[in-house]
Amino acid sequence: MSKSIKSTPCALSAPDRSNGVQWLTVGAAAEGQRIDNFLHRHLRGVPRSHIYRLLRSGQVRINGGRIRAHYRLRSGDRLRLPPVRTATPRSGPSPPPGLMRRVVAAVLREDAHFMFLDKPGGVPVHGGTGNPWGIIELLSRYRPELTQLSLAHRLDRETSGVLVLAKHRRALLGFQDALRHGEVVKVYQALLAGNVTEDRWRVSMSLARRRGEVRVDTGGKPAVSEFAVLRHLDGATLVRVRLHTGRMHQIRVHAAHSGHPVLGDPRYGDFTANRAWRRRGLRRLFLHAERLAFDWDGSHYEIRTPLPPELDAVVQTAEGAP
Question: Is 199 a catalytic residue?
Answer without folding.
Answer: no
